[in-house]
Amino acid sequence: MEVGILSMRYAKAVIEYAQKKGLEDKLYQEFLTLSHSFCEQPGLREALDNPVITTKEKLALVCTAADGDGKSTREFIQFITLVLRNRREGYLQFISLMYLDLYRKLKHIGVGKLITAVPVNKETEDRIRSAATHILHAHMELETVIDPSIEGGFIFDINDYRLDASVATQLKRVKQQFIDKNRRIV
Asked: Comparing C-alpha atoms, which of 105, 99, 43, 30 is closest to residue 71?
């Protein structure tokens, strides 16, 4: 079965169940943390795919990745147990991403990423968030990243759109214009 279809089915089932129980917000936090854990620790996926590790150890590993030292919700534990029992642990990262996607659509949440060369102050970050909220008519989750390689300006990713006003990109454009102009001269 295709990864996207399988992940979507599991994610839809768990979000519908969570809505009935009124726990979709708590599960969102757990899946968000789990998703970040998959990105930060590539060994987590390898451990889940390892047939030597028992199901109980895998469950403990996933719960720790989702909640750290905190206690996972009973519904989250039941869902992870179901996934492990059906031997779908290899899809868990994609299931968590699908859950986040469905939750954001359900709650009208937009996702933005602001990349700058230097740190921005809280006031500027709040102004950007409120402007994006007003334009999209949705609440915004804004992640700020500092990347000195852009040399100045900013790059703003929102949902599927990118606004690149970085100095590095503008310099590349100017360089390309000179190259193109020199080709025509020769």
From this structure: 30
